[in-house]
Amino acid sequence: MSSYDYDLFVIGGGSGGVRGARVAASLGKRVAIAEEYRYGGTCVIRGCVPKKLFVYASQFHEHFEDAAGFGWTVGESSFDWKKLVAAKDVEIARLEGLYKKGLAGAKAEILETRAELVDAHTVRLVKTGQTVTAKTIVIATGGRPNPHAALPGHELCISSNEAFDLEELPKSIVIAGGGYIAVEFANIFHGLGVETTLIYRGAEILSRFDEDLRRGLHEAMVAKGIRILCHDTLQKVSKGEGGLNLEALNNGTLQADVVMLALGRDPNTEGLGLEAAGVAVDERGAIIVDEYSRTNVENIYALGDVTNRVQLTPVAIHEAMCFIETEYKNNPTRPDHELIPTAVFSQPEIGTVGLSEEEAGKRYAELEVYRAQFRPLKATLSGRSERMIMKLLVDAASRKVVGAHILGHDAGEMAQLLGITLKAGCTKDDFDRTMALHPTAAEELVTMYAPSYRIRDGQRV
Asked: I want to staple 13 with a disulfide (CB 3.0 to 4.6 A). Which of 36, 39, 69, 128 is the partner?
Protein backbone atom coordinates (compact mmCIF):
# COMPACT_ATOMS: atom_id res chain seq x y z
CA MET A 1 0.00 0.00 0.00
CA SER A 2 1.38 3.41 -0.99
CA SER A 3 2.30 5.80 1.80
CA TYR A 4 0.95 8.70 -0.28
CA ASP A 5 -2.63 10.00 -0.09
CA TYR A 6 -2.91 9.89 -3.90
CA ASP A 7 -1.19 8.25 -6.81
CA LEU A 8 -1.68 11.44 -8.81
CA PHE A 9 -2.49 15.01 -7.85
CA VAL A 10 -3.31 17.44 -10.66
CA ILE A 11 -3.14 21.20 -10.12
CA GLY A 12 -5.33 22.97 -12.66
CA GLY A 13 -8.74 22.05 -14.04
CA GLY A 14 -8.31 23.03 -17.67
CA SER A 15 -8.45 20.73 -20.67
CA GLY A 16 -5.02 19.17 -20.12
CA GLY A 17 -5.37 18.70 -16.37
CA VAL A 18 -8.86 17.29 -16.57
CA ARG A 19 -7.92 14.83 -19.33
CA GLY A 20 -4.89 13.58 -17.39
CA ALA A 21 -6.84 13.24 -14.13
CA ARG A 22 -9.85 11.54 -15.72
CA VAL A 23 -7.88 8.96 -17.69
CA ALA A 24 -5.56 8.16 -14.78
CA ALA A 25 -8.57 7.67 -12.50
CA SER A 26 -10.22 5.41 -15.10
CA LEU A 27 -7.10 3.23 -14.91
CA GLY A 28 -7.75 2.70 -11.21
CA LYS A 29 -5.31 5.28 -9.87
CA ARG A 30 -6.18 7.33 -6.78
CA VAL A 31 -6.48 10.80 -8.28
CA ALA A 32 -7.36 14.26 -6.98
CA ILE A 33 -7.58 17.43 -9.06
CA ALA A 34 -7.73 20.99 -7.72
CA GLU A 35 -9.00 24.10 -9.49
CA GLU A 36 -9.34 27.51 -7.81
CA TYR A 37 -11.77 29.12 -10.27
CA ARG A 38 -13.93 27.02 -12.60
CA TYR A 39 -13.38 23.67 -14.28
CA GLY A 40 -12.78 23.93 -18.01
CA GLY A 41 -9.85 26.33 -17.89
CA THR A 42 -9.13 29.13 -20.33
CA CYS A 43 -10.59 27.39 -23.37
CA VAL A 44 -14.02 26.58 -21.98
CA ILE A 45 -14.54 29.42 -19.51
CA ARG A 46 -12.81 32.48 -20.99
CA GLY A 47 -11.21 31.48 -24.27
CA CYS A 48 -11.90 29.40 -27.37
CA VAL A 49 -15.49 28.37 -26.70
CA PRO A 50 -17.06 31.71 -25.69
CA LYS A 51 -14.92 33.44 -28.32
CA LYS A 52 -16.27 31.22 -31.11
CA LEU A 53 -19.83 31.85 -29.89
CA PHE A 54 -19.16 35.58 -30.07
CA VAL A 55 -17.67 35.15 -33.55
CA TYR A 56 -20.91 33.54 -34.70
CA ALA A 57 -22.92 36.39 -33.16
CA SER A 58 -20.79 39.02 -34.88
CA GLN A 59 -21.29 37.48 -38.34
CA PHE A 60 -25.05 37.84 -38.52
CA HIS A 61 -25.10 41.45 -39.67
CA GLU A 62 -23.24 40.40 -42.83
CA HIS A 63 -25.54 37.41 -43.29
CA PHE A 64 -28.54 39.74 -43.18
CA GLU A 65 -26.92 42.03 -45.77
CA ASP A 66 -25.95 39.12 -48.03
CA ALA A 67 -29.48 37.74 -48.00
CA ALA A 68 -30.74 40.56 -50.22
CA GLY A 69 -28.59 39.38 -53.12
CA PHE A 70 -30.33 36.00 -52.96
CA GLY A 71 -33.86 37.41 -53.04
CA TRP A 72 -34.55 37.65 -49.32
CA THR A 73 -36.01 40.73 -47.70
CA VAL A 74 -34.83 40.93 -44.11
CA GLY A 75 -36.69 43.27 -41.79
CA GLU A 76 -35.25 45.64 -39.24
CA SER A 77 -32.76 43.89 -36.97
CA SER A 78 -31.31 44.75 -33.58
CA PHE A 79 -28.74 43.23 -31.28
CA ASP A 80 -29.01 42.62 -27.52
CA TRP A 81 -25.57 42.26 -25.91
CA LYS A 82 -26.95 41.11 -22.58
CA LYS A 83 -28.90 38.28 -24.23
CA LEU A 84 -25.73 37.06 -25.91
CA VAL A 85 -23.77 37.14 -22.65
CA ALA A 86 -26.56 35.29 -20.82
CA ALA A 87 -26.79 32.62 -23.51
CA LYS A 88 -23.02 32.21 -23.45
CA ASP A 89 -23.10 31.78 -19.67
CA VAL A 90 -25.66 28.98 -19.93
CA GLU A 91 -23.53 27.08 -22.45
CA ILE A 92 -20.31 27.54 -20.44
CA ALA A 93 -22.04 26.27 -17.29
CA ARG A 94 -23.23 23.21 -19.24
CA LEU A 95 -19.72 22.44 -20.46
CA GLU A 96 -18.22 22.92 -17.01
CA GLY A 97 -20.79 20.43 -15.70
CA LEU A 98 -19.68 17.90 -18.32
CA TYR A 99 -16.05 18.26 -17.28
CA LYS A 100 -16.96 17.59 -13.66
CA LYS A 101 -19.26 14.74 -14.61
CA GLY A 102 -16.45 13.04 -16.50
CA LEU A 103 -14.10 13.35 -13.54
CA ALA A 104 -16.70 12.10 -11.09
CA GLY A 105 -17.59 9.17 -13.36
CA ALA A 106 -13.95 8.10 -13.35
CA LYS A 107 -13.90 8.44 -9.55
CA ALA A 108 -11.39 11.28 -9.43
CA GLU A 109 -11.71 13.51 -6.36
CA ILE A 110 -12.75 17.01 -7.40
CA LEU A 111 -11.38 19.82 -5.22
CA GLU A 112 -12.50 23.41 -5.67
CA THR A 113 -9.56 25.23 -4.15
CA ARG A 114 -6.24 26.75 -5.02
CA ALA A 115 -3.43 24.24 -4.55
CA GLU A 116 0.21 25.10 -3.90
CA LEU A 117 3.30 22.93 -3.68
CA VAL A 118 4.97 22.50 -0.30
CA ASP A 119 7.63 20.08 -1.54
CA ALA A 120 8.04 17.54 -4.32
CA HIS A 121 5.31 15.27 -2.96
CA THR A 122 3.18 17.59 -0.80
CA VAL A 123 0.39 19.97 -1.81
CA ARG A 124 -1.39 22.51 0.38
CA LEU A 125 -5.10 23.11 -0.23
CA VAL A 126 -5.44 26.85 0.34
CA LYS A 127 -9.16 26.87 1.14
CA THR A 128 -8.79 24.59 4.16
CA GLY A 129 -5.07 24.76 4.88
CA GLN A 130 -4.92 20.97 4.65
CA THR A 131 -1.87 19.28 3.17
CA VAL A 132 -1.98 16.09 1.12
CA THR A 133 0.68 13.95 -0.51
CA ALA A 134 0.96 12.36 -3.94
CA LYS A 135 3.38 10.04 -5.65
CA THR A 136 3.10 12.00 -8.91
CA ILE A 137 2.07 15.61 -9.44
CA VAL A 138 0.94 17.25 -12.67
CA ILE A 139 0.92 21.04 -12.98
CA ALA A 140 -1.54 22.26 -15.60
CA THR A 141 -2.38 25.79 -14.47
CA GLY A 142 -2.33 27.36 -17.93
CA GLY A 143 -1.68 31.02 -18.65
CA ARG A 144 -3.17 34.43 -18.05
CA PRO A 145 -3.23 37.72 -20.01
CA ASN A 146 -0.14 39.87 -19.56
CA PRO A 147 -1.40 42.98 -17.69
CA HIS A 148 1.27 45.18 -19.30
CA ALA A 149 1.90 46.81 -15.95
CA ALA A 150 4.51 49.17 -17.44
CA LEU A 151 1.74 51.06 -19.27
CA PRO A 152 0.50 54.07 -17.26
CA GLY A 153 -3.23 53.54 -16.84
CA HIS A 154 -3.15 49.81 -17.50
CA GLU A 155 -5.57 49.31 -14.60
CA LEU A 156 -8.22 51.16 -16.65
CA CYS A 157 -7.99 48.57 -19.43
CA ILE A 158 -9.55 45.14 -19.85
CA SER A 159 -8.12 41.86 -21.11
CA SER A 160 -9.80 39.10 -23.10
CA ASN A 161 -11.04 37.70 -19.76
CA GLU A 162 -13.28 40.70 -19.09
CA ALA A 163 -14.32 41.16 -22.74
CA PHE A 164 -16.83 38.31 -22.42
CA ASP A 165 -18.72 39.89 -19.54
CA LEU A 166 -18.87 43.64 -20.13
CA GLU A 167 -22.01 45.11 -18.60
CA GLU A 168 -22.71 47.11 -21.75
CA LEU A 169 -21.52 46.87 -25.33
CA PRO A 170 -19.21 49.87 -25.86
CA LYS A 171 -19.65 52.31 -28.70
CA SER A 172 -15.91 52.33 -29.36
CA ILE A 173 -12.92 50.15 -28.46
CA VAL A 174 -9.16 50.29 -28.97
CA ILE A 175 -7.41 46.91 -28.91
CA ALA A 176 -3.65 46.84 -28.35
CA GLY A 177 -1.92 43.86 -29.94
CA GLY A 178 -1.53 42.13 -33.27
CA GLY A 179 -1.78 38.45 -32.41
CA TYR A 180 -4.74 36.17 -32.98
CA ILE A 181 -6.56 37.23 -29.79
CA ALA A 182 -6.38 40.92 -30.71
CA VAL A 183 -7.36 40.26 -34.32
CA GLU A 184 -10.28 37.99 -33.43
CA PHE A 185 -11.73 40.43 -30.91
CA ALA A 186 -11.32 43.33 -33.33
CA ASN A 187 -13.50 41.45 -35.79
CA ILE A 188 -15.98 40.42 -33.09
CA PHE A 189 -16.53 43.93 -31.74
CA HIS A 190 -16.67 45.48 -35.20
CA GLY A 191 -19.23 42.89 -36.27
CA LEU A 192 -21.38 43.80 -33.27
CA GLY A 193 -21.41 47.44 -34.33
CA VAL A 194 -18.56 48.81 -32.21
CA GLU A 195 -16.19 51.42 -33.69
CA THR A 196 -12.95 49.42 -33.56
CA THR A 197 -9.28 50.39 -33.70
CA LEU A 198 -6.38 47.91 -33.57
CA ILE A 199 -2.97 49.29 -32.59
CA TYR A 200 0.13 47.14 -33.03
CA ARG A 201 3.85 47.82 -32.74
CA GLY A 202 4.80 45.51 -35.63
CA ALA A 203 4.83 46.12 -39.36
CA GLU A 204 1.92 43.72 -39.97
CA ILE A 205 -0.61 41.81 -37.87
CA LEU A 206 -0.25 38.09 -37.06
CA SER A 207 3.54 37.96 -37.13
CA ARG A 208 3.85 34.15 -37.12
CA PHE A 209 1.54 33.51 -40.07
CA ASP A 210 2.18 33.41 -43.81
CA GLU A 211 2.71 36.86 -45.28
CA ASP A 212 0.03 36.55 -47.99
CA LEU A 213 -2.63 35.70 -45.41
CA ARG A 214 -1.52 38.49 -43.08
CA ARG A 215 -1.75 41.10 -45.80
CA GLY A 216 -4.99 39.70 -47.20
CA LEU A 217 -6.68 39.76 -43.81
CA HIS A 218 -5.39 43.25 -43.04
CA GLU A 219 -6.87 44.57 -46.30
CA ALA A 220 -10.19 42.83 -45.67
CA MET A 221 -10.45 44.19 -42.13
CA VAL A 222 -9.73 47.75 -43.26
CA ALA A 223 -12.28 47.41 -46.06
CA LYS A 224 -14.89 46.46 -43.46
CA GLY A 225 -14.14 49.61 -41.48
CA ILE A 226 -11.70 48.42 -38.80
CA ARG A 227 -8.92 50.96 -38.22
CA ILE A 228 -5.49 49.30 -38.00
CA LEU A 229 -2.51 51.32 -36.75
CA CYS A 230 0.75 49.42 -37.23
CA HIS A 231 4.19 50.62 -36.11
CA ASP A 232 2.57 52.17 -33.05
CA THR A 233 2.12 51.55 -29.31
CA LEU A 234 0.07 52.95 -26.47
CA GLN A 235 2.01 55.24 -24.15
CA LYS A 236 -0.65 56.15 -21.62
CA VAL A 237 -4.33 55.58 -20.81
CA SER A 238 -6.30 58.00 -18.65
CA LYS A 239 -9.88 58.82 -17.79
CA GLY A 240 -11.57 61.49 -19.85
CA GLU A 241 -15.03 62.94 -20.18
CA GLY A 242 -17.32 60.08 -21.07
CA GLY A 243 -14.55 57.59 -21.80
CA LEU A 244 -10.82 56.98 -21.95
CA ASN A 245 -8.07 59.08 -23.46
CA LEU A 246 -5.14 57.28 -25.04
CA GLU A 247 -1.75 58.60 -26.03
CA ALA A 248 -0.17 56.70 -28.92
CA LEU A 249 3.47 57.00 -29.89
CA ASN A 250 2.85 57.83 -33.56
CA ASN A 251 -0.87 58.56 -33.88
CA GLY A 252 -1.35 61.14 -31.16
CA THR A 253 -4.44 61.17 -28.94
CA LEU A 254 -7.15 58.55 -29.34
CA GLN A 255 -10.42 58.15 -27.49
CA ALA A 256 -12.48 55.07 -26.71
CA ASP A 257 -15.08 53.73 -24.31
CA VAL A 258 -12.99 50.60 -23.68
CA VAL A 259 -9.32 49.72 -24.11
CA MET A 260 -8.42 46.05 -24.38
CA LEU A 261 -4.86 44.83 -23.93
CA ALA A 262 -4.04 41.70 -25.93
CA LEU A 263 -0.28 41.83 -25.53
CA GLY A 264 0.55 38.21 -24.93
CA ARG A 265 -0.04 35.73 -22.14
CA ASP A 266 2.09 34.72 -19.16
CA PRO A 267 2.42 31.24 -17.63
CA ASN A 268 0.32 30.91 -14.49
CA THR A 269 3.06 29.98 -12.03
CA GLU A 270 3.16 32.87 -9.59
CA GLY A 271 2.78 31.78 -5.96
CA LEU A 272 2.48 28.13 -6.93
CA GLY A 273 5.27 26.93 -4.62
CA LEU A 274 7.55 25.84 -7.45
CA GLU A 275 10.67 27.06 -5.67
CA ALA A 276 9.79 25.11 -2.52
CA ALA A 277 9.42 21.96 -4.61
CA GLY A 278 12.59 22.65 -6.56
CA VAL A 279 10.86 23.00 -9.94
CA ALA A 280 12.84 25.07 -12.46
CA VAL A 281 11.28 27.82 -14.58
CA ASP A 282 12.56 29.95 -17.44
CA GLU A 283 12.94 33.75 -17.55
CA ARG A 284 9.22 34.17 -18.26
CA GLY A 285 8.17 31.96 -15.37
CA ALA A 286 7.21 29.02 -17.61
CA ILE A 287 7.94 25.56 -16.23
CA ILE A 288 10.86 23.89 -17.99
CA VAL A 289 10.10 20.33 -19.10
CA ASP A 290 11.87 17.62 -21.05
CA GLU A 291 10.55 15.91 -24.17
CA TYR A 292 8.18 13.81 -22.02
CA SER A 293 6.72 16.82 -20.14
CA ARG A 294 8.70 15.95 -17.00
CA THR A 295 10.20 18.78 -14.96
CA ASN A 296 13.63 18.67 -13.37
CA VAL A 297 11.93 17.06 -10.35
CA GLU A 298 11.42 13.43 -11.33
CA ASN A 299 7.86 12.93 -10.05
CA ILE A 300 6.47 16.29 -11.22
CA TYR A 301 5.17 16.87 -14.76
CA ALA A 302 3.76 20.00 -16.41
CA LEU A 303 1.30 20.23 -19.30
CA GLY A 304 -0.18 22.88 -21.54
CA ASP A 305 0.31 26.64 -21.58
CA VAL A 306 2.16 26.72 -18.24
CA THR A 307 5.15 25.18 -20.09
CA ASN A 308 5.16 27.82 -22.84
CA ARG A 309 5.41 25.30 -25.67
CA VAL A 310 2.43 25.44 -28.05
CA GLN A 311 -0.48 27.30 -26.49
CA LEU A 312 -3.46 25.45 -27.90
CA THR A 313 -6.12 23.38 -26.13
CA PRO A 314 -5.74 20.22 -28.28
CA VAL A 315 -1.99 20.35 -27.62
CA ALA A 316 -2.54 20.31 -23.85
CA ILE A 317 -4.90 17.34 -24.22
CA HIS A 318 -2.36 15.53 -26.41
CA GLU A 319 0.38 16.18 -23.86
CA ALA A 320 -1.89 14.75 -21.14
CA MET A 321 -2.42 11.55 -23.12
CA CYS A 322 1.34 11.24 -23.69
CA PHE A 323 1.83 11.64 -19.93
CA ILE A 324 -0.60 8.77 -19.31
CA GLU A 325 1.29 6.54 -21.76
CA THR A 326 4.63 7.44 -20.20
CA GLU A 327 3.71 7.26 -16.51
CA TYR A 328 1.03 4.56 -16.36
CA LYS A 329 1.34 2.36 -19.44
CA ASN A 330 5.09 1.75 -19.56
CA ASN A 331 5.15 3.33 -23.00
CA PRO A 332 7.32 6.47 -22.96
CA THR A 333 5.67 8.83 -25.45
CA ARG A 334 6.86 12.26 -26.53
CA PRO A 335 4.24 14.88 -27.47
CA ASP A 336 4.33 15.59 -31.20
CA HIS A 337 4.32 19.34 -31.83
CA GLU A 338 4.92 19.17 -35.58
CA LEU A 339 2.34 20.11 -38.23
CA ILE A 340 -0.34 21.43 -35.87
CA PRO A 341 -3.38 22.83 -37.73
CA THR A 342 -4.18 26.35 -36.56
CA ALA A 343 -7.06 28.74 -37.18
CA VAL A 344 -7.63 32.43 -36.61
CA PHE A 345 -11.36 33.03 -36.31
CA SER A 346 -11.17 36.42 -37.93
CA GLN A 347 -13.51 37.58 -40.68
CA PRO A 348 -12.42 36.30 -43.16
CA GLU A 349 -10.99 33.27 -41.37
CA ILE A 350 -7.47 31.90 -41.53
CA GLY A 351 -6.64 28.20 -41.55
CA THR A 352 -3.06 27.01 -41.74
CA VAL A 353 -0.85 23.98 -41.22
CA GLY A 354 2.86 23.55 -41.76
CA LEU A 355 5.52 26.06 -42.72
CA SER A 356 4.98 29.62 -43.92
CA GLU A 357 6.58 30.63 -47.22
CA GLU A 358 9.37 32.46 -45.39
CA GLU A 359 10.14 29.46 -43.15
CA ALA A 360 9.96 26.95 -45.99
CA GLY A 361 12.16 29.11 -48.22
CA LYS A 362 14.91 28.95 -45.62
CA ARG A 363 14.57 25.22 -45.04
CA TYR A 364 14.41 23.86 -48.61
CA ALA A 365 16.82 24.44 -51.49
CA GLU A 366 13.95 24.87 -53.93
CA LEU A 367 10.33 25.53 -53.14
CA GLU A 368 7.30 25.48 -55.44
CA VAL A 369 4.56 27.90 -54.46
CA TYR A 370 1.01 27.27 -55.69
CA ARG A 371 -1.24 30.26 -55.04
CA ALA A 372 -4.84 31.04 -56.00
CA GLN A 373 -6.82 34.17 -55.18
CA PHE A 374 -10.45 34.33 -56.19
CA ARG A 375 -13.89 35.62 -55.36
CA PRO A 376 -15.95 32.83 -53.76
CA LEU A 377 -19.21 31.83 -55.45
CA LYS A 378 -21.39 33.20 -52.64
CA ALA A 379 -19.92 36.67 -53.15
CA THR A 380 -21.09 36.81 -56.77
CA LEU A 381 -24.69 37.35 -55.64
CA SER A 382 -24.10 38.90 -52.22
CA GLY A 383 -21.97 41.58 -53.82
CA ARG A 384 -19.12 41.29 -51.34
CA SER A 385 -15.64 42.12 -52.60
CA GLU A 386 -13.81 39.75 -50.22
CA ARG A 387 -11.45 37.35 -51.91
CA MET A 388 -10.17 33.96 -50.82
CA ILE A 389 -6.50 33.02 -50.85
CA MET A 390 -5.26 29.44 -51.04
CA LYS A 391 -1.62 28.52 -51.00
CA LEU A 392 0.38 25.29 -51.07
CA LEU A 393 4.12 25.12 -50.44
CA VAL A 394 5.91 22.15 -51.99
CA ASP A 395 9.48 20.92 -51.53
CA ALA A 396 10.59 20.62 -55.16
CA ALA A 397 12.97 17.73 -54.45
CA SER A 398 10.55 15.38 -52.67
CA ARG A 399 7.26 16.89 -53.99
CA LYS A 400 6.05 16.83 -50.39
CA VAL A 401 3.52 19.49 -49.38
CA VAL A 402 5.16 21.30 -46.43
CA GLY A 403 2.67 24.12 -45.89
CA ALA A 404 -0.97 24.86 -46.63
CA HIS A 405 -2.60 28.23 -45.98
CA ILE A 406 -6.15 29.49 -46.52
CA LEU A 407 -7.86 32.83 -46.04
CA GLY A 408 -11.63 32.72 -46.39
CA HIS A 409 -14.86 31.20 -45.12
CA ASP A 410 -14.49 27.84 -43.35
CA ALA A 411 -10.68 28.03 -43.56
CA GLY A 412 -10.38 26.44 -40.12
CA GLU A 413 -12.48 23.45 -41.14
CA MET A 414 -10.33 22.93 -44.23
CA ALA A 415 -7.12 23.27 -42.22
CA GLN A 416 -8.18 20.42 -39.92
CA LEU A 417 -8.46 18.05 -42.88
CA LEU A 418 -5.29 19.38 -44.47
CA GLY A 419 -3.58 18.60 -41.17
CA ILE A 420 -4.27 14.90 -41.76
CA THR A 421 -2.98 15.17 -45.32
CA LEU A 422 0.29 16.85 -44.40
CA LYS A 423 0.79 14.59 -41.38
CA ALA A 424 0.49 11.59 -43.69
CA GLY A 425 3.29 13.03 -45.85
CA CYS A 426 1.21 13.52 -48.98
CA THR A 427 2.88 14.94 -52.05
CA LYS A 428 1.67 17.48 -54.57
CA ASP A 429 1.12 14.54 -56.93
CA ASP A 430 -1.37 13.09 -54.41
CA PHE A 431 -3.24 16.41 -54.47
CA ASP A 432 -3.20 16.40 -58.28
CA ARG A 433 -4.61 12.86 -58.42
CA THR A 434 -7.51 13.80 -56.14
CA MET A 435 -10.79 14.57 -57.89
CA ALA A 436 -12.18 18.06 -57.30
CA LEU A 437 -15.49 18.45 -55.49
CA HIS A 438 -17.40 21.08 -57.47
CA PRO A 439 -18.58 23.71 -56.77
CA THR A 440 -16.57 24.33 -53.58
CA ALA A 441 -13.84 26.71 -52.58
CA ALA A 442 -11.72 23.77 -51.39
CA GLU A 443 -11.50 22.33 -54.92
CA GLU A 444 -8.83 24.96 -55.60
CA LEU A 445 -6.52 22.92 -53.39
CA VAL A 446 -6.50 20.08 -55.92
CA THR A 447 -6.71 22.09 -59.16
CA MET A 448 -3.59 24.26 -58.88
CA TYR A 449 -1.45 22.28 -61.32
CA ALA A 450 1.32 24.75 -62.17
CA PRO A 451 3.44 26.64 -59.62
CA SER A 452 2.71 30.35 -59.34
CA TYR A 453 6.42 30.88 -58.69
CA ARG A 454 9.47 29.18 -57.20
CA ILE A 455 11.85 30.05 -54.41
CA ARG A 456 15.43 28.94 -54.88
CA ASP A 457 18.03 29.45 -52.15
CA GLY A 458 15.65 31.81 -50.39
CA GLN A 459 15.02 34.01 -53.46
CA ARG A 460 11.93 34.14 -55.64
CA VAL A 461 12.60 33.07 -59.22
From this structure: 39
